[in-house]
Design goal:
single chain; alpha/beta; 2 domains; 7-stranded mixed beta sheet; 15 helices; 12 strands; 50% helix; Hydroxyneurosporene methyltransferase; transferase; protein dimerization activity
Length: 334
C-alpha cells in the first residue's frame, strides 16, 4: 500500500475517530476520569451514558491512546487524553465540541454542495454565523468558550513578541468580551484602550474589563465597524475579524479604520497567514471551514493581505509569527 493510499484511508478513518473524540468531549469523560480509573459502568453512570454503547467508544479511544485499560473493562486517562479535561491549560475540549456543534457539523458535511454552486450551504440554511449564534444561546456559549480558549496562546504571543508604543491608545475593533484588550493593557501599564463591538456584546466586555481592574483605562463603545470605528487611536487591532468577510467588506472595514486613526497610527491584524506552498498548514484547514460557513469569508496569504491594505490606503509592514499557526500583520498608512 502506498503512502497516498494510507493518507486516503486514514482520512476516512478520521471521521470515526473524530466522532469518538466528540463523544469524549461532550460527555466530559476526561473530567470524570481525572481523579483515577473507572469501570465502564461507573463512567457511564457519571456521564449519563448507555454503558454498552460507551464501551464501544472507549475501545476506539484506547486505540487512539487517549485512554488506557488498567484492568478488564476499567480505563484510566492518558497524558494525551488529559488535553480533553476542561481545566487543562491547553484544553482542546471546547474546540472539539464546537466543530461537532449542529450547525458546524452540517456546514462541513455540506461542503460539496457549497463548492458546486459557490455559496455556503450553512448560510443558506442558517444565515450569517453571528445571527445563528444570536438565535442559539447554547451554541453561542460554546462558541465563546472555543474563542476564549483559542485566543489564549495567540494573546500570549501577541504581548510577548510585539512591542506596543508604551503610551498608546489601542482600539480593539470587534473586541468581543475584552480578553485580548485586557491582556495587552496588563502587559503595557501606560497604555489605554477602547473596545468597540455590537451593542449586545458590550455589557460582557464591560464586565470583563471591570473584573480585570481596568475600568479606569478602558472604554467600551457600541458600534458597527461597517458604519465607522472610534477615532483617536494609535493602534487598531482586528483579531480574527477580516477572515469573516469577502474582499470588498474587508477593505471597507480597513478604510474605516484608516480614516479614524491618529497620524502615525498602525493597524494590527491578527489572523492565520496562508503559506504559498503545498505543505500541510492549519490555515488550509481553517480556510475550508470559512468556505463552508461564510459567503466570502476566507483565510488569506501575505500577498492577499497586502492587496487589501493597498486598497484601504495602508501598506504592509512587519509580520510577526505568534505561534499556534497565527500571525500578527502590521499595516501603516501608505
Amino acid at each position: 500500500m502506498t503512502y497516498s493510499d494510507d493518507l486516503l484511508w486514514g482520512a476516512v478513518g478520521d471521521l470515526s475517530r473524530f466522532a469518538a473524540l466528540l463523544t469524549m468531549a461532550e460527555l466530559g469523560l476526561a473530567d470524570h476520569l481525572a481523579s483515577g480509573p473507572l469501570s465502564t459502568d461507573e463512567l457511564a453512570e457519571r456521564a449519563g451514558a448507555h454503558a454498552p454503547a460507551l464501551r464501544r467508544v472507549l475501545r476506539e479511544l484506547a486505540a487512539m491512546d487517549l485512554l488506557r485499560p488498567v484492568a478488564p473493562d476499567v480505563h484510566e486517562l492518558t497524558e494525551k487524553g488529559g488535553a480533553l479535561r476542561s481545566d487543562a491549560t491547553d484544553s482542546v475540549r471546547a474546540s472539539i465540541r464546537m466543530l461537532g456543534e449542529e450547525g458546524f457539523w452540517y456546514a462541513l458535511g455540506m461542503l460539496p454542495a457549497t463548492v458546486r454552486d459557490g455559496g455556503s450551504a450553512f448560510a443558506k440554511r442558517y444565515g450569517h454565523l453571528y445571527d445563528y449564534l444570536a438565535k442559539n444561546p447554547t451554541s453561542s456559549r460554546l462558541f465563546d468558550d472555543y474563542m476564549k480558549r483559542r485566543a489564549i496562546p495567540l494573546t500570549q504571543g501577541l504581548v510577548q513578541r510585539y512591542t506596543f508604543p508604551p503610551t498608546a491608545t489601542m482600539v480593539d475593533v470587534a473586541g468581543g468580551k475584552g480578553h485580548i484588550l485586557a491582556t495587552v493593557l496588563h502587559a503595557n501599564p501606560e497604555m489605554r484602550g477602547i473596545l468597540v463591538d455590537l451593542e449586545h456584546v458590550t455589557a460582557h466586555a464591560t464586565a470583563t474589563l471591570a473584573a480585570e481592574g481596568l475600568s479606569d483605562r478602558a472604554e467600551v463603545v457600541a458600534g458597527d465597524f461597517f458604519a465607522g470605528v472610534p477615532g483617536g487611536g494609535d493602534v487598531y487591532l482586528l483579531a480574527s475579524v477580516l477572515h469573516n468577510w469577502d474582499d470588498d467588506d474587508a477593505v471597507k472595514i480597513l478604510r474605516n479604520v484608516r480614516e479614524a486613526m491618529n497620524p502615525g497610527g498602525r493597524v494590527l491584524v491578527l489572523e492565520v497567514v496562508l503559506p504559498d506552498d503545498t505543505v500541510p498548514h492549519l490555515g488550509k484547514d481553517l480556510d475550508l471551514r470559512m468556505l463552508a460557513i461564510f459567503n466570502g469569508g476566507a483565510e488569506r496569504s501575505r500577498d492577499e493581505y497586502a492587496a487589501l491594505f493597498a486598497q484601504a490606503g495602508l501598506a504592509l509592514g512587519e509580520v510577526v509569527e505568534l505561534g499556534s499557526g497565527a500571525s500578527l500583520i502590521e499595516a501603516v498608512p501608505s
